[in-house]
Amino acid sequence: MEEESMRIADERLPSLSSVADGMIEMIERPSEDIAKGCVVEASKEVITEHEHVAFVSYFARALLLSWVCLIVRFAVSEIRVARQKCKRNNELKFTWVELFQYRLEHHFSTSKWAKPMLLLSATSILILVGGAMLAIVTTNEDFTFDSDSAWIAWTYVADPGTHADAEGTAVRFVSFCITIGGMLVFALMIGIISDEISGRVDDLKEGKSRVIESNHTLMLGWSDKSLAIIEQIALANESEGGGYIVVLADMSKVEMEQQLNHAMDSNERPLKLLGTTVVFRSGNPIMEHELSKVGVSTARAIIALSPMGVEPDEADSTMVRQVLALNSCELSAHIVVEMQDIDNKALITMVSPDNVEVVVAHDIIGRLMIQCAREPGLAHVIESLLGFDGDEFYFENWEKLTGCTFFEVTCRFDDAVPIGVKKASGYIDINPPNDYVIQENDRILCLAEDNDTYTANDGSFLSKCIVLSQKLKAAKMTIPRRGKEKLLFCGWRRDMADMIVQLDEYVAPGSELWLFNQVPASERVELLKDKDNKDEVRCSHLAIKNVVGNPIVRRHLKILNAVDNNGEALNEVSTVDQFDSILILSDEDASTCEDSDSRSIATLLIIQDVQRNLIDKKKKLMMDEKMNSSSSSETITVKVL
Fold it and tell me: Strands (DSSP E) along 232-365, which ranges?
């Protein structure tokens, strides 16, 4: 059995070995094919890499050659310019250094690409010269200028630590020089980039970008009234959750922001924006492209402020140009323009008669000062009415009140007081007749807390109003009339003539107006004529007395001596306690508003102190007279007894 098994195994072994040999052959054959394929692919990649390197080398050479050609062409053109200058004037002598500085300054001032091109040229020249020097001092035959030296020179320029591996004295010296040049080039690059970034940041600080806002209030110009206007607009926007105010003025944006921040950080009555955002932009408000930058066409209201520091006529002519610039834009906003002289108001009416409202602040302030001087406490009432803190005026159209008389309208608001009507023509009628009928497009002027705090009632209170009106008509009301008044103006204003004419209409005949200021009496008549733009002031109720003196000097305020128009003294003397009203006018000749306010405050304090002393003296004299009279009467009584 065992022999038979061995024989069968021997017969099967040759077949098993042949099978194994076949399997080994099958395994080895694909591996050889794969190895051959890998060799072929590797050779292809090597060929492709060599082609890529060759392409990059050719491209680099072409780029360097093109840049060298541009530099050479630029140098040739500059040489031609120098020759032309010499031909035009043979006496013109200059050095090549002077010519280089002059032309370099010219290109820097006329082209924004001058600095980058200078940097690129310096870098290219450094690489070309450095690469050529490396190719000369290097002993390696395979080291050529076009393939190796230019690249190595660039590495020395870009990285100062690369030249540490250089071998040989000459190579190290050239590498050191290239590295120093690279440090200078990169210092120049950093300086150029720093200047560019600083310029961009300065542009942002100066506010040269476009304002993306709508339904905002646009203020054109900046003056001493700007902060007060911003505060009042902020109060008006408080009920709406805030708003936007855009300011365009021909001054530094940083300076305007500093003034606003200083007012907001003030310890005494700080300015509160109440949710309103103020955006500043620097530019000339007269230029149309500057106006488009601040969204003039999408603004809700436009306020144009008169420039400061110029003559009134010149400032008003600037405002006329401002209105012309606004007329060239497509506007839907209400425009308010400030002017300085009431006589120039007609110019704005001629240019834009419909959609521009003119405010002569100087004239309004003068009129209010006269009214406030004659009615103590009136200033507080006007401040409360004209500001947005508390109650203010609002126009509104009420369809349900169309056809009602104004008397009926006065009883239709529980939380507001109707005081006038703005008609469809734009005319505002304050306190119209009771029988005036409200038309369809009329807007009723009311005094209310806010524009959304009042509404028209059902008219049930009308019957009570009629009864009350009948009682008032039945009652006899007498208005007391004023007697003669004596007023004192301390200081001088350029619209003094207008103030005198208006005051003459209010006072009773025989009243006196004393003008106390530093203007010589002989010059006042001409100043009142305003350079012959006005007629001579003639008063029917006032008698004008001139006094020359300094309102901030105490001895000048103790006794006021009147003089005539020639400066000759008159036999008329007065003291500050004898006047019914005293107006202290701000000094327009002061350098700043603060100086003018300081003079006004000093005048006020001195006048109050002088008045107090004079009144005390009079009281003391009266007491002495009473004591003397009582003692004499007692003596007489004793004698009689």
Answer: 244-249, 277-282, 301-304, 334-339, 356-360
Q: Rounded CA gap, 450 and 452, in Å?
A: 5
d(CA 421, CA 523): 46
CA 138 to chain centre: 65
User: What distance in Å separates the CA atoms of residue 167 and residue 164, rounded to the nearest whole number?
Assistant: 9
Q: Looking at 201-292, which runs of residues are DSSP E strands?
A: 217-220, 244-249, 277-282
- What letter does residue 585 receive in the DSSP assignment? -
- The residues, any chain, with a CB within 8 Å of residue 81's CB and separated by 6 or more, are 103
Per the CB < 8 A criterion, the answer to whether 557 and 606 are in contact is yes
For residue 301, the cross-strand partners are 217, 334
Q: HEC profile for 135-165?
A: HHHCCCCCCCHHHHHHHHHHHHHHCCCHHHH
Q: How far apart are CA 19 and CA 608, in angstroms?
A: 134
Q: Phi/psi zone of residue 517: left (φ > 0), alpha (ψ -120 to 50 degrees), beta? A: beta
pTM summary value: 0.67
pLDDT digits (tens, 9 = 90+) for 133-160: 877 777 665 555 555 677 777 787 877 7
Closest-CA residue to 248 (of 240, 256, 239): 256
Q: Evaluate whether 207 touches 257 at the Cβ level (below 8 Å).
A: no
SS3 annotation, 387-454: CCCCCEEEEECCHHHCCCEHHHHCCCECCEEEEEEECCCCCEEECCCCCCECCCCCEEEEEECCCCCC
Q: Percent helix, strand and coil across the chain, each rounded to 5?
A: 55, 15, 30
* Span 213-266, pLDDT tens digits: 999 999 999 998 999 999 999 988 888 888 999 999 998 888 999 999 999 998
